[in-house]
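Field notebook, page 401. I keep forgetting to write these up properly, so this time I am using the form the group agreed on. The chain and the ligand, 3-phosphoglyceric acid, are recorded exactly as supplied. Prediction of the bound pose follows.
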Amino acid sequence: MKFNFCMKIKSLRQVKNLTGKRALLRVDYNVPIEKDSGAAGTARIKDDYKVVAGLPTIRFLLRHKCKVIIITHLGRPIKNQKYFSVKPIADRLSELLGKKVKFVDDCAGLKAGTEVSKMRRGEILMLENLRFSYDEENNDLGFAKKLAKLADIYVNDAFAASHRAHASVSAIKNYLPSYAGLLLENEIVNLNKILRPQSPLIAIIGGAKMETKTPLIKKLLKKSSRILIGGALANNFLATHKIEVGKSLCDKKSIALAKRFLNKKIILPVDVITGTRKDGQCEGRSKGVYQVKKNETILDIGPKTIKLYSRFIKKAKTIIWNGPMGMYESEHFKYGTLSIARAVASRSSGAAFGVVGGGETIEALKMTKMLNYVDWVSTGGGAMLAYLSGEKMPGLKGIVK
Ligand code: ADP
Ligand code: 3PG
Ligand code: MG
């Protein structure tokens, strides 16, 4: 099965005679940053997991004596704000590789071209944030052509940005022979195991915004044996049963979306932890879902729900988890999420194949120090949801069939 999936990927590993080639490597180094706290007005990287995840592809290209030209976006800059410069990431990458990574504060212009022309085999050059040019997000052909001129081949290792129709993942493929990097390939192979799961598949879906999760719930309903709902998402489902959710995050549109999924496979919390403040800066109270008062806010799943959900997780052969079970950022409302994280991690790497994805979900999983137990931690947030929901992904067109 795995072999068949691999066959459909135009992998970098299939390229013959890479030696000396200029490889334009699109990565997603869109990492969480702390503004203005780095040197000379640049940002400090708060978490480098995306940089670490991309190392095998860079090492592969170096082993084949390529000239490696790295491109990425960082954040959503409005202008060329200095703290969105990718220079600190080039420095971090250099530390991780134990090798010089040259940086140029230009992307598709003359400066970049000059630096590329000076490159020798086995050297790495990182170009400035792609989003400092509006042409990137406009999927501009001219911009893509300029980028393409810098290289001989194009490697997409930016799975996390591949749901975007942007020049460096989409239009670029018109101008260069294009391949999937090793990380992108691994994302596809592992996420395909969720799309063709070993039964029973247990999906755990939480988080805040209903509309971002409905395509995934719709897709997984067919494949899963159960979908365990948590987080603010659960409020909308509870409201469809006319259960009082007080001041919890919940709106008419989301309730209407939840109504479409009233199905016996959908499992809802039986108890919750409520607070008196929406920001979670208050003590929590455990109660059954029918006991929530008008002035209360649901901020976590309760102990009975943790037990119920854990029982399902313990029987799973395949697990997918996206979205925290509660406002895990608050000391008082983190236990549901952390307990589910531990249950997922414990069942993974052996008894079941476990996949976790989503920026905040991974952050919560890290808090348990059990990240390494999970079989695949996706670097894609929106991209993972898009891929698993079966959406067309412009960045994968032509390289994943
Ligand atoms: P991810 O980034 O992992 O995909 P989401 O962005 O969907 O996750 O959701 C994460 C956010 O959901 C967190 O900031 C968390 O505080 C919030 N959240 C979860 N449960 C609740 C709740 N009951 N009430 C308010 N916010 C919640
Ligand atoms: C991500 O972090 O999910 C990707 O880098 C995409 O970023 P974007 O949502 O700003 O396009
Ligand atoms: Mg999020």
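OBSERVATIONS:
- The first helix runs from residue 2 to 7.
- The chain has two domains: 12-183, 190-389.
FOLLOW-UP: compare against the apo run.
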